[in-house]
């Protein structure tokens, strides 16, 4: 049961990470975020990215908040997998 839960949450974190990467790619194309998909994706990732954008200032007009956000998701996923392995081993 625990391993299934860890797998599901890990997969959700993977999907959210991919959503952030796709959002970053869409920001390179003019008008892409104004599409229906772009607006939906912005609503999905903006609350999480907004937290990091408030903490990390842009440097030369480039925001490093998505990089830090993905790094935090990766750390959370790694910690979750480690915790899942500990709980299964008990």
From TrEMBL:
<keyword id="KW-0472">Membrane</keyword>
<dbReference type="GO" id="GO:0016020">
    <property type="term" value="C:membrane"/>
</dbReference>
<feature type="transmembrane region" description="Helical">
    <location>
        <begin position="12"/>
        <end position="35"/>
    </location>
</feature>
<feature type="transmembrane region" description="Helical">
    <location>
        <begin position="55"/>
        <end position="76"/>
    </location>
</feature>
<keyword id="KW-1133">Transmembrane helix</keyword>
<dbReference type="InterPro" id="IPR003425">
    <property type="entry name" value="CCB3/YggT"/>
</dbReference>
<protein>
    <recommendedName>
        <fullName>Cell division membrane protein</fullName>
    </recommendedName>
</protein>
<keyword id="KW-0812">Transmembrane</keyword>
<dbReference type="Pfam" id="PF02325">
    <property type="entry name" value="CCB3_YggT"/>
</dbReference>
<comment type="similarity">
    <text>Belongs to the YggT family.</text>
</comment>
